[in-house]
């Protein structure tokens, strides 16, 4: 892999890190090594990386800020592309804000607030890139990012750029067609609403305080582990099933928010997977409902 790393590094401006521990790139602080972690500095870099993996026949995975990922303890084979801040330029024109996919959501919201553009307040505290947020259709407090999307530009695995509008992306609850396309989000244009920056700031603060009250932000996590079943809340079902505080190794169902599994220090992916199955079993036994995962499992864990 080191030879491949050198070969790829010579072709792009971005970083190439062989045998890179992915726990350094996930908010759960869990995950074994990527054979090659690559951080492109531009679309041209990205296209070059795609050509490289095609030439060499390497497996290929894309991540953003790793805030919705459970990466297996044995890591991920082949090339993992991290779309980060080097592909995160932000600009404002009228009511629209254009952000490179690697821009952190918090930074996009801050630029919008400064420009007197409201609508992103609900995203405060979601530790995502804008590319990951549109892919997952991140949402909170009854709002979701998909509703703000004007267009999304992707580079497909063949290296072609394509632009999609909101309707084409079929946004739903924690879903967008981007999850099915073999493509990487490189740019997002959002349509926002002119508003007083002070009013935007106040609303953002209220959302943030609510998060701090209700979520265990003092521990590494990936936010909600399970999707809410229609008309109900996964956290409520988990709590009533008696799973709050359940612990395997250093992975624990949070006492503060039952849909969070927190890493108390040295949790392994295998601990989290066992805990997920235990919680699912308890909820199924009590309510006859099988909870679906919101987090994405990457690497060769064999679980789903
Ligand atoms: C403390 C905390 C609070 C959270 N609160 C919320 C919340 O309120 N609402 C909510 O919806 N989520 C929440 N989350 C979960 C998470 O932040 C979101 O799912 C977020 O959208 C993931 O973005 P990311 O950049 O971290 O993507 P990652 O976790 O890195 O990736 C998620 C998925 O998107 C894909 N992906 C990422 N970037 C790209 C790209 N550029 N192109 C193509 N595919 C890509 C990946 O392959 C993967 O399948 C929370 C997480 C934490 C840790």
From TrEMBL:
Lineage, uppermost ranks: Bacteria, Bacillati, Bacillota, Clostridia, Thermoanaerobacterales
GO cellular component terms listed in the entry, alphabetical order: cytosol
Record-annotated FAD-binding PCMH-type domain positions: 30-195
Homology family: Belongs to the MurB family.
PROSITE patterns: FAD_PCMH (PS51387)
Pathway: Cell wall biogenesis; peptidoglycan biosynthesis
Location within or outside the cell: Cytoplasm
The protein's enzyme class: oxidoreductase
Name of the molecule in the record: UDP-N-acetylenolpyruvoylglucosamine reductase
Primary residence: cytoplasm
Cited Pfam families: FAD_binding_4, MurB_C
Cofactors named for this entry: FAD
UniProt-listed GO biological process terms: cell division; cell wall organization; peptidoglycan biosynthetic process; regulation of cell shape
Catalytic activity as recorded in UniProt: UDP-N-acetyl-alpha-D-muramate + NADP(+) = UDP-N-acetyl-3-O-(1-carboxyvinyl)-alpha-D-glucosamine + NADPH + H(+)
NCBIfam families xref list: murB (TIGR00179), PRK13905.1 (NF010480)
Functional note: Cell wall formation.
Gene3D superfamilies per UniProt: 3.30.465.10, UDP-N-acetylenolpyruvoylglucosamine reductase, C-terminal domain, Uridine Diphospho-n-acetylenolpyruvylglucosamine Reductase, domain 2
Keywords assigned by UniProt, alphabetized: Cell cycle, Cell division, Cell shape, Cell wall biogenesis/degradation, Cytoplasm, FAD, Flavoprotein, NADP, Oxidoreductase, Peptidoglycan synthesis
The EC number(s) this enzyme carries: 1.3.1.98
Residues annotated as the enzyme's active site: 174, 224, 294
Record organism: Thermodesulfitimonas autotrophica
GO molecular function, one term: FAD binding
């Amino acid at each position: 892999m080191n030879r491949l790393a050198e070969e790829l590094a010579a072709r792009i401006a971005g970083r190439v890190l062989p045998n890179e521990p992915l726990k350094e790139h996930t908010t759960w602080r869990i995950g074994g090594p990527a054979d090659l972690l690559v951080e492109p500095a531009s679309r041209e870099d990205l296209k070059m990386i795609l050509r490289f993996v095609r030439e060499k026949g390497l497996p290929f995975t894309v991540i953003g800020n790793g805030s919705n990922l459970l990466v297996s303890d044995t890591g991920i084979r082949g090339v993992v592309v991290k779309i980060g801040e080097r592909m995160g330029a932000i600009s404002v024109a009228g009511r629209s804000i254009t952000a490179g996919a690697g821009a952190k959501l918090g930074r996009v919201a801050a630029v919008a607030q400064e420009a007197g553009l409201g609508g992103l307040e609900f995203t405060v505290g979601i530790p995502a890139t804008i590319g990951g947020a549109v892919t997952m259709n991140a949402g909170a407090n009854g709002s979701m990012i998909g509703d703000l999307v004007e267009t999304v530009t992707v580079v497909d695995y063949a290296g072609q750029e394509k632009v999609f509008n909101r309707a084409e992306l079929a946004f739903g609850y924690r879903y967008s067609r981007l999850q099915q396309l073999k493509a990487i989000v490189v740019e997002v244009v959002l349509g926002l609403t002119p508003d007083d920056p002070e009013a935007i700031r106040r609303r953002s603060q209220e959302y943030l305080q609510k998060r701090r009250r209700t979520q265990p932000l003092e521990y590494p996590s990936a936010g909600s582990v399970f999707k809410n079943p229609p008309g109900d809340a996964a956290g409520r079902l988990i709590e009533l099933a008696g799973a709050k505080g359940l612990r395997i190794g250093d992975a624990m169902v949070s006492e503060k928010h039952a849909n969070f599994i927190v890493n108390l220090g040295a949790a392994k992916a295998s601990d989290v997977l066992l805990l997920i199955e235990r919680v699912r079993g308890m909820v199924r036994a009590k309510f006859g409902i099988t909870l679906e995962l919101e987090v994405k499992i990457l690497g060769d864990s064999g679980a789903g």
